[in-house]
Amino acid sequence: MWLRWLSLTQFRNYARLEWHLEPQVVLVMGGNAQGKTNLLEAIACAATGHSFRTANERELIHWAAWQDPMPFARIIAEFVRRDGPVRLELTLIAERAGPEVSLRKQARINGAPHRVLDLFGQAAVVLFAPQDVEVVGGMPAERRRMLDLLIAQTSPAFARALAAYQRALAQRNALLRRLQEEGGDPAQLDLWDEAVARYGALLMRERARVVQAMAPHTEEIHRALSGGEPLTLRYEPSLDPWRWRGQMGLGAAAWGPHMPEETLREIFREALRQERALDIRRGATRLGPHRDDLRFVVEGIDLGRYGSRGQQRTAILAFKLAAARWLRSAFGESPLLLLDEVLAELDEDRRRFLLGALEDVEQVILTTTDPMRFDPGLRARARGFRVRQGWLEEVPLPDP
Questions:
Q1: DSSP E strand stretches across the chain
Q2: Is 367:40 a contact under the CB 8 Å cutoff?
Q3: Which pLDDT band holds residue 61 (cuts at 50, 70, 90)?
Q4: Which of 84, 86, 153, 380 is the most buried (most CB within 10 A)?
Q5: Nearest Cα residue to 7 out of 54, 63, 75, 59
Q6: What is the rounded average pLDDT for all residues in the chain?
Q7: How many CA atoms are closer than 13 Å to the CA of 168, on its beta-carbon side?
Q8: Residue 328 backbone dihedrals phi, psi, to 5 degrees
Q9: Side by side, which strands form the sheet with 364-368?
Q10: Can you tell me the mean pLDDT for 272-294?
């Protein structure tokens, strides 16, 4: 899979851009704050409908566009898949209502209007950025988001279930707060307990399945990167199925992707019912996928809590490369790799391993402030571009 064409209108610092590519290594060079990362962000936005850099997506609209009555930004990306090309379009429209500004998104696939969620599953993209190192030791929400965006690329059904779960959870929490403040019959929660359990069980099983599938790849890659250290990915659901299954008298069954979804749904629903009193006192739902975590563990040591920055960097790089392998098996073709200043903090051995892993990828787009960090062989087969203040031009790369 590769990107053939990218068109940007009023996106970040690009007032207008038309970029045509081939299936090869692409090296984007330039100083800091010139627009290198913005290109990768735009490609990832087209594939997922979301920015990996900011929760305030109004920032994606070019500053000059805010002088217009209705500011907007548009991304059009044409990916070439094994079964043919697909054109993805995402438009972000800022709508003013007095001092308030809201953002509305519109999506098109091959020119036809679609929900933004439908962008998932159309293209496979793996992005590695310097800030990803912070994910290992950061808040659990960051790790959940990383895992969910990965799974959603292969399963639009997962993306829809995640959105439905978040809506049901918000409704349940609103009712919990009302019961906390005004009192009332807790049985009012039955409807939302059912919805939260239905969608939540699907999310938990899928997360467990993908983590289990990625684990061998992650361990193998991490051993190569670290000189032999095994890395374990540990999915930790806030709902402990073992505990609740025992309390319900259902016997001991292995928790994981092989537990029937209906069984997990029943366990989740019963746990919510039994925890109602405490949830009402707190005004929030304490159990469920919104409280789950993904941990990175080496020989019993949780790298998020006790790992050095170097260990965390190696762990997240191993995860991203394992994600690329997993996506390749899911799609039947290599994903597009987007690597933002990936060599800046890697030693020579890790650089060599990473660049070697790019050999069988159809297309990889790398950004750098210094092209001499890349070995002569890669520079000889790469196509070079330089970006300055939102202007992109093709340039020759330094001689090998």
A1: 2-11, 14-20, 25-29, 72-81, 84-97, 100-109, 112-114, 125-128, 231-236, 293-298, 301-302, 336-340, 364-368, 382-388, 391-394
A2: yes
A3: very high
A4: 153
A5: 75
A6: 92
A7: 21
A8: -60, -40
A9: 125-128, 336-340, 364-368, 25-29, 382-388, 391-394
A10: 96
167-186 pLDDT, tens digit per residue, is 999 999 999 999 999 999 99
Give pTM, 2 decimals: 0.92
Encoded amino acid at 45, one letter? C
- Rounded Cα–Cα distance for residues 79 and 102 (Å): 30
Judging by beta carbons within 10 Å of its beta carbon (0-12, 13-18, 19+), is residue 86 exposed, middle or buried? middle
Q: For the chain, give the number of residues.
A: 400
Distance CA 393, CA 246 (A): 64
Contact 144, 135 (CB under 8 A): no
Strand 336-340, strand 364-368: pairing: parallel
Q: Taking Cα atoms as reference points, which of 346, 399, 347, 351 lies closest to residue 377?
A: 399
d(CA 76, CA 46): 7
- Cβ–Cβ contacts within 10 Å for residue 364, how many? 26
- The model's pLDDT over 352-389, given as tens digits with 9 standing for 90+, comes to 888 888 888 899 999 999 998 888 888 998 999 999 99
Provide the 8-state DSSP code for 111: T
Query: Which of 148, 84, 78, 82 shows the shortest CA–CA distance to 120?
Result: 148
